[in-house]
Design a protein that fits this description.
377 residues, 4-stranded parallel β-sheet, globular, 14 helices
Length: 377
Amino acid sequence: MKKIKSFFVAALAFALVAPAFTACSSDDDDNKTVENIISEFSVNDKMVAEQKAKSKKDVAVLLVAFGSTWNNAFLAFDKTKAAYEAAFPQADVYVCFSSDICINRASVGENVDDNGNIVKRDYYEPRYLLHAIGAAKYSKIYVQSLQVIPGEEFAAVVASVKKFMNNGYIGNAHLDDAYLAKLADNEAIFLGMPLLSDPEVDVPEVAKQLNALYSSEAQQGVVAFMGHGNPDTYDTFKANVRYNQLEEELQKFNPNYFVGTVDMPDNYKQDVLARMQEKGINSGKVYLHALMSIAGDHAHNDMAGEGDEYWTPMAPESEDVSWFEFFSHMGYEATVPVTNNHPQGLLELSGVLNVWINHTKNAEFLEDAYHSMYPEE
């Protein structure tokens, strides 16, 4: 494991310093007992073993998303899995969530489909799927982050893979050390980077794909993208700069493109407004799009929320004020384009999804992934 450890020792410090920023809720995670943890290992071991026996494939691709509780997001993950199966016919593809909150609330049905039916989905944490993949003895493993930037949530993905390779589990979840050593020695475990990992390659390509979709809107008014971002304290790998870089690339196509966030200091909706006004854009149409892998709580509420509950006259810059209500009250004609009654996430845009897929196809051994985050070293 000589090369794996050199990557993970540097990255793990970032991965464990803070609670996850939730796109599902701000409530605390439910506590899990040892018995429940062992049970979840068993459930996943059985599921993966049955899949491998059925497919007879020896390569696994694990897609790691933060998670969601929205049915339209579940459908987006389904389509993403199908796209990966088409791109990797030699592999079994699995999807997992890194957020306990999303996992727990998806399993009990926090939201409904467009017909009003409660939708329940079972997703599991990366550690359970990784253990199951290891127990099934796949000879090559790709772990693909579905994060947008290589920030705090991506660091959590890194931590999950480290635990897997260090075999640090409990009870009957212990893996075969010889198998893990073989993966390391053969450089057979790969980490696919987030969407906007490389500022010189990914950022221009994503800008190109977004412009291809939204150029007609940009000709009519402002196109404002809402990303997540990390607070300064948790700006892991200094990834927040990707939003600024993406705005710069988009504005090479049209100065009406802007990129803001819900969590990055100095890049909130009011900062987007200030940059618009600096360019003399004081009225007109504002098209709002989610710059997130899926359209979940942030897209439906923080971005597209309509009505008095999403507007606070005395504090228009409050995080409780949606982007839709904010720009509407600031004198603009705000609109949220929808497909099948919902905003779209980036995974639903085939050109953008292909950037993630290419990251998996071009994934290298983990030490090389580390240096891609720190090119100056």
